[in-house]
Amino acid sequence: MTAYTTKIDIPAETRRAVVDLLNQHLADTFDLYSQIKQAHWNVKGLHFIALHELFDKLAADVLPLIDDIAERITTLSGVAVGTIRSAARASRLMDFPLAGVIEREALELLSDRYATLAASAREAIDTAASLGDVDTADLFTGMSRELDKTLWVLEAHLQ
User: Fold this and answer.
1) CATH code, domain carrying 17
2) 78, 118, 93, 76: which is closest to 28 by C-alpha?
3) Domains contained in the chain, number
């Protein structure tokens, strides 16, 4: 979906395809943010404070990814579809339990979400590159690197 004119020299058809790809990842990443906050607010267990603080940091670290994705969409003359309702409808992530979660379960659930999104980001690198948009491929490369690093942190807690 493109809505604005631009002098960017990427063909309109390519920009539309990339905007669709980016909007899917905007929904997934916004959903990840909300799931991290759900874990932050509801984690229980002996290591509550450490995980409560960790999850808050992880949520803060995801916000720049969301912003980068949305700004790339609008840079390509698209519309960033970024409401909570739209993210909930479009997200490919599994639902997060609404009840309190014990610390290990919260770590496992979040590590699953991070692994899913990181794998999807790697696929998006190839898709964006095949469409000829190396800048969006680079955005997804950075996103993949950040998600993998956080996955490592989560998995370290589970070892």
Assistant:
1) 1.20.1260.10
2) 93
3) 1
